[in-house]
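// run 5 | inverse folding | seed 20
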């Protein structure tokens, strides 16, 4: 009986340690920024590892009052791509800790 209890206790400690490592990774991701562009680089979005938009650059040449939809599409594309790349960056770092194992509730 004590072997099972000790084994479970060990698993819980390992899971807690893994969660702490993941928390540290998530905290460190706030300072890492992903850059993604659309429209041939005319719109560039910058997203941190917390999937927060931290900067947006728009070249003046794409600001056309007669076609706001084009600019909207470029902004959406750049932001979406930056968020996707940011999520992939975080997942890659977390996988280093978890060994690629998807553990519900850890991330």
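// decoded
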């Amino acid at each position: 009986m004590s072997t099972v209890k000790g084994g479970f206790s060990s698993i819980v400690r390992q899971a807690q340690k893994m969660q702490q490592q993941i928390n540290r990774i998530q905290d460190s991701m706030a300072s890492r920024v992903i850059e993604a562009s659309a429209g041939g680089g005319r719109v560039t979005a910058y997203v941190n590892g917390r999937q927060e938009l931290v900067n947006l650059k728009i070249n003046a040449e794409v600001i056309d009052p007669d076609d706001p939809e084009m600019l909207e599409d470029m902004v959406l594309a750049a932001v979406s791509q930056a968020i996707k790349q940011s999520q992939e960056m975080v997942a890659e770092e977390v996988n280093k800790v978890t060994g690629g194992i998807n553990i519900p509730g850890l991330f």
